[in-house]
Design brief:
CATH architecture: Sandwich
Largest sheet: 7 strands, mixed
Number of strands: 10
Oligomer: single chain
Helix content: under 10%
Shape: elongated
Number of domains: 1
């Protein structure tokens, strides 16, 4: 019996591990195409895994499905805190555990024959990452922090 392992996806966030309530937090999964080679019944076999869907859980009861693993704001050409297909805005301050379940389609090649699809998908869930959500306060001041370094917020 041969066994072919894909490995769990991982998640990163922008900003890294923190955000501001009401602002978009960008999430990116690392789960690209993967290929495993081995032997079955004395013959070479290769299994190719392709991610086809990403199911995000943001830890606050909200989630969404996406067809993309997400991109950094820089790679997307967007400024920080912009909305992306994988971003989420937290309504409340707190600490949240974020995961993504990636659905992989698979196909195999046995003994040098053509590729054949495997029915169904394989769902693998990332380990959670922690995102701490903070609040902000706007304060009107008479001087800049350069002019008054001990002023509010400086």
């Amino acid at each position: 019996m041969a066994r072919f392992l894909v490995g769990n996806p991982t998640v990163v966030s922008e900003p890294d591990g923190w955000t501001i309530a009401g602002a978009e937090t960008n999430f990116i999964a690392s789960a690209g195409e993967r290929e495993q080679a081995g032997e079955l019944l004395g013959q070479p076999v290769t299994v190719h895994f392709t991610p086809v869907a990403y199911d995000w859980r943001y830890g606050d009861g909200m989630g969404q499905s996406a067809a993309t693993p997400g991109l950094t704001w820089e790679a997307s050409g967007l400024p920080a805190f912009s909305r992306t297909p994988t971003s989420h805005a937290y309504a409340e301050r707190g600490t949240y555990a974020v995961t993504v379940t990636v659905e992989f389609a698979a196909r195999y090649q046995f003994a040098g024959q053509g590729w054949a699809d495997i029915a169904g998908t394989l769902g693998l869930t990332s380990d959670p990452i922690t995102v701490t959500v903070k609040g902000v306060k706007t304060v009107l001041v008479g001087k800049t922090c350069d002019e008054n370094p001990s002023g509010p917020g400086c």
